[in-house]
Specification:
alpha/beta, 219 residues, single chain
Length: 219
């Protein structure tokens, strides 16, 4: 199966999941995760009409996306991997959405860079729903207070929450938890679900799903 066919298949599955969950057609957007893939592998996906992409590392994205974004206007690039404060300037310059805010230092660094560069980046808070020590994200019980800190004290506009459930657990309860937290925070954007579970995420209210291997193939 060619990459264009795999993209069509994923989009079709998203639409089917929307229908099954009694959700409006088009209410879930696809973030095509292009991490580790070179520009040559990404161009056919862009040519097929995909305009939203996700990358894990700032440095890797810098090596391919400035040229790709110049070639095709209208691309939205999401940072979906952990961000270090010393990369905040580069992240604000390149990315349109940063999904992985999980501590005050990063929030303040991004606020300063957005002000300095005069650029409004869409921001999400990453929640470590499984409390996994090796994984980034703020603890669920700290989420409401952290979102308030970002909005009211630091002055950055958080628009949603993101999570990556533990690989060996049923993702449903984690997606349900993220949806509850978003409701308590007054947020309506949920980034959750990957290649193996995005249909479940749609059922629990995901507004965007992050799919890589089902489109680009194995890494």
């Amino acid at each position: 199966m060619q990459v264009e066919e795999r993209l069509d298949d994923v989009l079709s599955r998203i639409r089917q999941a929307e229908t099954s969950a009694n959700r409006k057609d088009g209410s879930v957007s696809l973030v095509a995760v292009s991490k580790t893939f070179a520009a040559e592998a990404i161009r056919p996906v862009i040519a097929a009409g995909q305009r939203v992409f996700g990358e894990n590392r700032v440095q890797e994205a810098q090596g391919k996306w400035p040229a790709l974004k110049t070639e095709t206007p209208g691309i939205a690039l999401h940072l979906i991997g952990p961000l270090q404060s010393n990369k905040a300037a580069d992240a604000v310059a390149l990315f349109d959405v940063i999904e992985t805010i999980d501590r005050e230092k990063i929030a303040r660094a991004l606020a300063a860079e957005m002000a300095r560069q005069g650029k409004a980046v869409r921001l999400y808070v990453q929640v470590n729903t499984g409390l996994e020590p090796q994984k980034a994200g703020i603890a669920p019980e700290q989420t409401e207070a952290f979102v308030r800190l970002c909005r009211e004290t630091i002055g950055i506009p958080i628009e949603g929450l993101m999570c990556i459930p533990p690989a060996d657990e049923n993702p449903g309860p984690h997606f349900a938890l993220l949806a509850r937290l978003a409701g308590r925070c007054g947020l309506d954007r949920l980034s959750m679900g990957m290649s193996g579970d995005f249909d479940v995420a749609v059922a629990f209210g995901a507004t965007s799903v992050r799919v890589g291997s089902a489109i680009f193939g194995t890494r």
